[in-house]
Amino acid sequence: MNARDWSASPRNWVTTLMFALTALVAVVGVPWYGIVHGYSAAAWVWFAVILSANELAITCGYHRLFAHVTYEAHPALRLVYLLFGAMALQNSALVWSAGHRIHHRYIDDPQRDPYCARRGFWFSHIGWMLRNYPSGEPDLGTVRELQHDRLVMWQHRHYLAIALSMNLGVPLLLGWAEGDVVGFLLLAGVLRLVVSHHLTFCINSLAHMIGSRPYTEDNTARDNAVVALLTFGEGYHNFHHMFAHDYRNGVRWWQWDPSKWFINLMHWVGLARNLKSVPWFRIQRAILETQFRRAERQLAQSGDRAKLEHLRQRVAEEYASFTAAVTAWSQLREQWLQSTRRAVAERWERSILQMRLKELEHGLRLQYRRMRLLQAQLA
Ligand SMILES: [Zn+2]
Ligand SMILES: [Zn+2]
Q: In whole angstroms, what is the distance from residue 329 CA to residue 340 CA?
């Protein structure tokens, strides 16, 4: 490890003081004012509304739109994301996206991943912002297309002015209208900012530490329903690191992913389009591949020779049928794409292709269940 990277990196006093002072006010000032004067219901409601606006601007805007381009958004929606994203005080969308693309590219590399979870909870949660680490220097070469985006560049150039006026202006205006300026500044201003910060930071810390890895075991990213609850759906982080260009993180309909629902809503009202999602088959393939690798590991560790040989045989058979299905699926998909491209494509030809694709998908679903049973025997 580079020694300079660890201890000799200069402290970033701006972020250190910002995090320390806002946390101090949230922990001491907010309860004290609550005990002495009390808060109105309106102040609590606006705390929740602005907190949600900030979180959605980060998850749907900064993350899934600007950093990963998982859909296209109307300029009005982009502007709202940029205003409320600046209010969340996590830097400009340009710098944020640059760091995040590096995080995906060099995930878990202590030298290059800006919030590498292998460097510990504190570092990945907040520590990476408290010093000017070489791994944290944004490489703007990764966001060239965003540098041609007029709205993104406008926010980047005037970030401080926008961030300050949103953070002071919105709570002040609301507080003045409701006749409770201090109460609004404390709840909708400071407490909202501190809570919003730490909710987002959990994605870089907890979502790389606690939870399951159904889609890939190649990195530290985890799926965690509790973290998803805290982070507006970003807790399905194992899926996200495997399929970063999918607009969903909680891919199943029942998984808690309000960011996915919000993007769907924006699509429905015509403010978002071209939502990208990974074909179901590829997702299932990732799950099965992970299961096979796990089974292999368990087989290697198991001691019971007779049982082992039998199970090894069954896993090998399942793997053979799985690779056959994957090959068939790729061929069918290619035929399907060609038939849709051909203007003269016969309807019946396409419906037969579609039926065979469905059969293959059904086969994989059954295989998933058989693998779960096999895995239970191996455990
Ligand atoms: Zn991550
Ligand atoms: Zn991401």
A: 16
Tokens 């779960």 found at: 372
Whether the Cβ atoms of residue 160 and residue 95 lie closer than 8 Å to each other: no
Distance set, CA 232 to CA 59, 83, 209, 255, 346 (Å): 7, 19, 18, 11, 44
H-type alpha helices, the chain:
3, 13-24, 30-36, 41-56, 75-87, 93-105, 121-122, 128-130, 150-157, 159-178, 181-184, 192-204, 225-230, 237-242, 258-268, 280-301, 305-341, 347-378
CB count in 10 Å sphere of residue 95: 15
Q: How far is the CA of 146 from the centre of ligand 1 (A)?
A: 21
DSSP state of 234: T
Distance of CA 208 from the midpoint of ligand 1 (Å)? 6
Using the mean position of ligand 2's atoms as its centre, give its distance from the Cα of residue 234 in Å.
Answer: 9
- 126 Cβ contact partners less than 8 Å away, ≥ 6 residues apart: 19, 201
User: What is the sign of the dihedral through the CA atoms of 172, 176, 178 and 183?
Assistant: positive
- The two tokens of residue 225 are 């329903």
178 Cα distance to chain centroid? 36
User: How confident is the prediction along the chain (379 residues), in pLDDT tens digits per residue?
Assistant: 444 445 678 999 999 999 999 999 999 999 999 999 999 999 999 999 999 999 999 999 999 999 999 999 999 999 999 999 999 999 999 999 999 999 999 999 999 999 999 999 999 999 999 999 998 888 899 999 999 999 999 999 999 999 999 999 999 999 999 999 999 999 999 999 999 999 999 999 999 999 999 999 999 999 999 999 999 999 999 999 999 999 999 999 999 999 999 999 999 999 999 999 998 878 888 888 888 888 778 777 776 667 777 777 777 788 788 888 888 888 888 887 777 766 555 666 777 777 887 888 888 788 888 877 777 777 6
Å from CA of 365 to ligand 1 middle: 28
Q: How far is the CA of 242 from the centre of ligand 1 (A)?
A: 10
**Which ligand ends up closest to the CA of 205?**
1
Distance 358 CA to ligand 1 centre (A): 33
Neighbour-count burial of 15, counting CB atoms closer than 10 A to its CB (0-12 exposed, 13-18 middle, 19+ buried) = middle
